[in-house]
Amino acid sequence: MSTSKILDYLHDPSPRTLGRSPWEWLARLHRPTVVQVAGRDRSRTRAMATLLHGNEPSGLFALHRWLLEQHTPEVNMLFLLGGIYPAKIEPTFSQRQLPAGRDLNRCFRAPFTGAEGAIAEALLAELHKAQPECLLDVHNTSGTGPAFAVTITNDAAHQALTSLFTDRLILTDLRLGALMEYSEQEVPTVTIECGGAQEEQAHQLAYEGLVRYTSQADVLSLDTADWDVAVLRNPIRVELAPDATIEYRLAPSGHADLTFPPDIEHRNFGVVSPHEPLGWVGHKGLSILTAISHNRIENMARVLRVQDGQIYPAQAIKAFMITTNPVIAKSDCLFYAVKATGDPIF
Ligand SMILES: [Zn+2]
């Protein structure tokens, strides 16, 4: 199938075509869009995807601001805006994917079925054509919290790309069909989670990282010897049973299977000792939770324990992507965890 029917293209867009705000720009975008900006060195290209999830706008906000400022990047830039269709649904930037559609960031592998598969295949074709030296995929987390990067490879190039945005790097062997798996094509690829979609500092971080990504002659060498990256390896996913109920309250009401305090997000990336309570379970105990590792082994006993109705870590853990959104908690994941050392729990 011709990709021209799937994608729109903008070459060195002028401020007039961009609108005064990202919302004006979004109103003028009608399909997943490829934006190309010519650089000083036209022999090289760097790529950045964003808005693969329609409710994660930091990357688009950053790109709009950067394009309005009419920078000349060091090398050619290729920007891929994936989730234009879900992003345009009113209220804008509220839908991760189309109501009957698939998660676009699970579609970057064959078979490329359905509308999202076709978009993913067309975006991969653009990458193949441009042969970028590296690729970023800029997202937001569902709640609030600090930024972090996710990769499937931990070498100097991936650390250098991460260092443009954050000093936390999550390394995973899990393969889901995410764009970051493009890393396996020998192109350093990093997913950047800028922080919460509603957070001004997440938008600012995306912008500052984009400026660094486009303005430095070399983004793949780590020359700052003192860059102190915290690498978290193969986190386990803690999931809530689909029929379980969750509340965010300072004390359990007695009606929910799981209760977390409303400020549970403050635990993100901190070490939680085995003596610090995380929340409460109802009479079903921990049976409403599953802990799944990248190799699909489950062993909740090494992650959490219950004492007098309260949940404690079974050992010192580092948890992250803790959500206070009950919809995300039930449909995706409650939180991820590694040992306090950053090593896998399993
Ligand atoms: Zn996302």
Verbal overview:
- The chain is α/β, with parallel strands linked by helices and 346 residues long.
- It has 2 domains: 3-231, 3-Layer(aba) Sandwich (Aminopeptidase); 234-339, no CATH class.
- It is 21% helix and 26% strand.
- It has 8 helices and 19 strands.
- The strands form 3 sheets. A 9-stranded mixed sheet has the order 1-2-4-3-5-8-6-7-9, sandwiched between helices. The chain has a 5-stranded antiparallel sheet with strand order 13-18-19-10-15. A 5-stranded mixed sheet has the order 11-12-14-17-16.
- A hairpin with a 2-residue loop joins strand 16 and strand 17.
- The longest helix has 17 residues, at 114-130.
- It is globular and about 65 Å long.
- The protein starts with 7 loop residues before the first strand and ends in a 7-residue tail after the last strand.
- The mean pLDDT is 92.
- Zinc ion (ZN) binds at residues 53, 56, 139.
Fill in the keyword field for this structure.
single chain; 346 residues; alpha/beta; Aminopeptidase; five-stranded antiparallel β-sheet; 8 helices; 21% helix
Low-confidence parts lasting 5 or more residues at pLDDT below 50? none
Q: Under CATH, the topology of the largest domain is which?
A: Aminopeptidase
Bound ligands, each once: zinc ion
Q: What gross morphology would you assign?
A: globular
The residue-averaged pLDDT reads 92
Q: How many strands, what sense, and barrel or not for the largest sheet?
A: 9 strands, mixed
Under CATH at level 1, the class of the largest domain stands as Alpha Beta
How many discrete domains? 2
